[in-house]
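Q: Could you predict the 3D structure of Alpha-ribazole phosphatase/probable phosphoglycerate mutase?
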Amino acid sequence: MKLTFVRHGVTEWNTLGRWQGHSDNPLSEAGEHQARLLARRLKGQSFDLVYSSDLVRARRTAELALPGVSVLVDERLREVHFGEFDGRTFDQIRLHPLFATWAERPFEVPTPSGESLSEVVTRGLAWASTLPDGANVVTFTHSLFIRSLVCHLIDIPFRSSPHRIFPVPLSTPHTSLTVVRRAENDWTLERLGDDSHLEHWTSSDASQQTSQHS
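A: Sure. Here are the predicted structure tokens for Alpha-ribazole phosphatase/probable phosphoglycerate mutase:
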């Protein structure tokens, strides 16, 4: 089985540094542009199944990146439910009386009125268990969901600290690709947070414009 995880494009809340969790915010204009650049990269590629979180920022990214392709929507692919942290910046969140407790043990301790990373991984694994063996699957989802599930699959330990924005030592930029492959029961990380399409196509467009006006 091959799983390609795509983080959604950027939103206004991302730009403002606000945690959005289950908040259903649309892509910003920049986010839509990122998704269209991703479409150039994915053009000609085929997948057995295409999935998306039910949140609009993920669904819209899938729609723009793979136009005309049927997308299966599953709420289990949502971002972490941040509860009372939702909509706040990190500077605001770390002042919350329960933040330190969550930051010390985020895998076991849920966010206030939200969920723990263990619960996120559990629903991610439940989704993955429904996929057919040998399938090549792409799913449009969210950063901490991707990082939590991938850390579990390839056995990377969580790094808990009240000084870290998120307690997972991986980076997944907007519209980046993270790829894992399973052979028997062993998962291998093939690609992590690859957003080279943003730089490649933006540079290519700029070069073409320069050539046209030179």
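Q: Anything worth pointing out?
A: Residues 196-212 form the longest helix (17 residues).
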